[in-house]
Amino acid sequence: RHYILDLMRVTPRDSNYIGLQHRFCVLRPELVASFVEAESIKKSPTEKVPDAPTESNGQEPDDIASGSDATAASVEEHDKSDETPVSTPAESNDMTAEILFNPNVFTEYKLAGSPEEIEVDEALVKKVGSYLLDTVIPKFVQDLCSLDVSPMDGQTLTDVLHSNGINVRYLGKVAGMIKHLPHLWDLFSAEIIVRSAKHVVKDILRQSPDHNIAPAVAHFLNCFFGKVLAASSKGSTGSPQSKTQKKSSESASSKKGQSAFSQLTSDGVWSDIKEFAKHKYQFEAPDDVRVGTKRVAVLRNLCQKVGITIAARKYDLHSTTPFQPSDILNLQPVVKHSVPTCTDARKLMEAGKIRMAEGTLNEAYALFSEAFSLLQQVKYILA
């Protein structure tokens, strides 16, 4: 027998996005693993080691130093006596196995089980959603503020979000919490604008025929970076009736192909982008977002996300129409896929970059060499 595995809903639904319009909003596996680990730590029996005596007990520092050996010996004996019941693997496995999620809750499917069981499953999924909002995202913002996490571009920002179990749809919420950091605010706002523009240009491409793809993309980029105004209706008032009827058949076919993008203006495109950003990411784009964005970085990010190949020349992105249809060389499909990566090697590479930025070149070289050795052993074993 052949089976179809629905790997989309391996993890449960996001309780913060409920409804038919959010039916594909699921939680990330990293968040589920983090939640299970946190709940296991809460449920595990722990005993605190009694604090060492301090000066507040009336002892002098010399007395504390003389009695440190006896205290250390008693602490070691206490730890050895309690080591077995605390770290029993069977108990921790049982506690982890108790946390089971139902991926069918908050969906249109009919759930099996009693109403009490369904209510318990829904409460557990809601608890994960609250854990994401109340614990994971504030901890991530704290790491950003303390520079423990320093994303440099949109790709590294996406990777950091995913590694912490945060979906990209929470970009707007995170951006609202780091407004006091200008470099991060610019990065988050640019990423949201690019992702919103990607959906707008994809809607235009779906309505454009194949022979008009290059003009459609060029016109959108001109509206996005330049200043395209509404087309004026020239010749509509002084032309005779016969000429209008004669030219109607000739212009009908051209209007069909160009109707998807020829009427676009800069104000209309940016209005759609801001509306999509507000709907998808809960992000209120500021009025000066068109002026404040770094145009070259945004252009590169947008072309990578949509699959647009443009000619390598110097563009005047501050002009009215910086792009021509001849500048659009190719449009390649961008498909999400799962590429196996060596996480240990990636961590070593990131640690090496940090050491190199700090100036410790010897440590950076050692980390890079170890990462290269791991990559050779893991990724190129079939070559």
Automatic annotation (TrEMBL):
Residues 42-94, 234-260 are annotated as: Disordered. Residues 250-260 have a biased composition (Low complexity). Signal peptide: none annotated. InterPro entries: CLU-central, CLU_prot. One of its GO terms (cellular component) is cytoplasm. It comes from the Eukaryota. Residues 84-94 have a biased composition (Polar residues). CDD domains: CLU-central. Residues 149-316 form the CLU central domain. This is CLU central domain-containing protein. It comes from Aegilops tauschii subsp. strangulata.
